[in-house]
From TrEMBL:
<dbReference type="GO" id="GO:0005524">
    <property type="term" value="F:ATP binding"/>
</dbReference>
<keyword id="KW-0547">Nucleotide-binding</keyword>
<dbReference type="GO" id="GO:0016887">
    <property type="term" value="F:ATP hydrolysis activity"/>
</dbReference>
<feature type="domain" description="ABC transporter">
    <location>
        <begin position="3"/>
        <end position="220"/>
    </location>
</feature>
<keyword id="KW-0813">Transport</keyword>
<protein>
    <recommendedName>
        <fullName>ABC transporter domain-containing protein</fullName>
    </recommendedName>
</protein>
<keyword id="KW-0067">ATP-binding</keyword>
<dbReference type="GO" id="GO:0022857">
    <property type="term" value="F:transmembrane transporter activity"/>
</dbReference>
<dbReference type="InterPro" id="IPR003439">
    <property type="entry name" value="ABC_transporter-like_ATP-bd"/>
</dbReference>
<comment type="similarity">
    <text>Belongs to the ABC transporter superfamily. Macrolide exporter (TC 3.A.1.122) family.</text>
</comment>
<dbReference type="GO" id="GO:0098796">
    <property type="term" value="C:membrane protein complex"/>
</dbReference>
<dbReference type="Pfam" id="PF00005">
    <property type="entry name" value="ABC_tran"/>
</dbReference>
<dbReference type="InterPro" id="IPR027417">
    <property type="entry name" value="P-loop_NTPase"/>
</dbReference>
<dbReference type="InterPro" id="IPR003593">
    <property type="entry name" value="AAA+_ATPase"/>
</dbReference>
<dbReference type="InterPro" id="IPR017911">
    <property type="entry name" value="MacB-like_ATP-bd"/>
</dbReference>
<dbReference type="InterPro" id="IPR017871">
    <property type="entry name" value="ABC_transporter-like_CS"/>
</dbReference>
Length: 220
């Protein structure tokens, strides 16, 4: 799916102070199946932008088109359905449910069809290399393994777009590289669009395109 941002802006209100302008008239186009590295210094607005692209937050102004559909013209229920159908999101910290086993965590987004999806969930766990952990709890896994589980959970819906916001932030360099490689491979295999926030220049150079943010704007 392709993604077009048209003059996206996001302001946060502050009491008795001027609004903070976090995103300032952002424009870009991401083509279907492209791998994008989103880079920029801390505070540049990367997380704010990727949350809006992932339909988890609304912009203050501007438009976002996914495959030509003006997403924010829809209500919250529409955004929720669109997200569930098309989008996989991997966070900096995995957000796995500690009281559910690994396989249950992967099945959570599709809980009402968990029996039908069990095989698929196991295949994905095998692909990300942690099938042997399926009946264990997240707390028993290493940081890298937990993040692999979070990637598996993001893939269970066969998303056409994967967003990952510094998925390697809590990992050592080597494990982090493996996780980023896994996301790249998964995107290549399925033809899904990937937007990855990364500080790794080597990996960014392998992306189809780098979107660099500075102070809420895109540097071209
Ligand atoms: N809910 C909020 N209310 C007010 N300001 C916010 C809010 N969320 C983010 N900001 C501000 O927006 C700016 C951009 O934040 P954002 O988290 O998008 O940056 P980032 O590029 O992801 O940084 P990092 O690399 O540290 O994760 C920061 O100055 C931050 O303080
Ligand atoms: Mg961030």
């Amino acid at each position: 799916m392709n993604i077009i941002a048209e003059s996206l802006s996001k302001n946060y209100k502050r009491k008795n102070l001027p609004d903070i302008k976090v995103l300032k008239n952002i424009d870009f186009e991401i083509m279907s199946g492209q791998k994008i590295a989103l880079t920029g210094q801390s505070g540049a607005g990367k997380s704010t932008l990727i949350h809006i692209l992932g339909l988890m937050d609304r912009p203050t102004s501007g438009k976002l088109y996914i495959d030509g559909v003006d997403c924010f013209a829809g209500d919250d229920k529409y955004l929720c359905v669109m997200r569930k159908k098309n989008i996989g999101f991997v966070f900096q910290f995995h957000y796995l449910m500690p009281d559910f086993t690994v396989i249950e965590n992967i099945l959570l987004p599709v809980w009402n069809e968990k029996n039908i999806k069990l095989n698929q969930a196991q295949n994905i766990l095998e692909k990300v290399g942690i099938l042997h952990w399926q009946n264990h709890f997240p707390g028993e896994l290493s940081g890298g393994e937990q993040q692999r589980a979070a990637i598996a959970r993001a893939l269970i819906n066969n998303p056409q777009i994967i967003f990952a916001d510094e998925p390697t932030g809590n990992l050592d360099r080597i494990t982090g590289l493996e996780i980023e490689k896994l996301l790249f491979e998964s995107s290549s295999e399925t033809g899904s669009t990937l937007v990855l926030v990364t500080h790794n220049d080597e990996l960014a150079s392998k992306a189809d395109k780098i979107i660099k943010m500075t102070d809420g704007k895109i540097m071209l």
